[in-house]
């Protein structure tokens, strides 16, 4: 590679302080942007939730994914779900929730949160492209019982830009897991969403509280600007 390019990305506006990262050792994590959670008429909505509160994430996240791809940052997608025989679903998780609308029950888009079903897959707007990793996870966190640690270690990734749904559940659990494993995390504020605005607001505050107890937060415009500045202008690969 020849370059007039800057490889350190900087987000001065990040909370609680400036965030710097090396795109060579950074991945974009897109958590659980699945039809079961986001589609009108689907599982999330059937529980009485307003899916509009999650769907507002789609546009800024699609833009961020596109910039990450241009910058050569690996985009890693996750899906929460279980094997068709539910053998990977702990009984305690299976028993939770509204009867007849539990994991494995029939839903509008197939069996709820079961791998291979239409509702379990990622929404069309954020469909992974060829070569991108998709992690199927049985838990809320993306590290629990998955190959994510090995994949990140193999690629030399030390920093995660974290996006997806929902802010206070799978995003938070994953960021906490990542922290305990030594990753630097930045949560992109308008690229995460929750059915509960208050949980979303407080969930984001919790990330950067106490000097960044779990990491940093910043809006996607600032992440996009930082990444765009690292895209080669006259590079030959
Ligand atoms: C939930 C998730 N909320 N992806 N899953 O059950 O946050």
Round the mean pLDDT to the nearest integer and report it. 95
Any ligands, ions or cofactors bound here, and which? dicarbonimidic diamide
How many alpha or pi helices? 9
| Major sheet characteristics | 6 strands, parallel
Instruction: Name the helicity range.
Output: 25-40%
Terminus-to-terminus distance = 5 Å
Q: How large a portion of the residues is in β-strands, by DSSP E?
A: 15-25%
Q: Give the CA-based shape.
A: globular
Number of strands: 10
Q: Strand order within the widest sheet? A: 7-4-3-8-9-10
Q: Low-confidence segments, ≥5 residues, pLDDT <50?
A: none
Order of helices and strands: EEEHHHHEHEEEHEHEHEH
* Category from helices, strands and their pairing: alpha/beta
Short description:
It is built from nine helices and ten strands.
Describe the structure.
This protein has helices spanning about 35-40, 45, 50-55, 60-70, 90-95, 150-155, 165-180, 195-210, 220-230; strands spanning about 10, 20, 25-30, 75-80, 105, 110, 135, 160-165, 185-195, 215-220. The protein has about 240 residues and is α/β, with parallel strands linked by helices. Helix 4 (about 60-70) packs parallel to helix 9 (about 220-230) and helix 7 (about 165-180) packs parallel to helix 8. It binds dicarbonimidic diamide. Dicarbonimidic diamide binds near residues 32, 165 and 166.
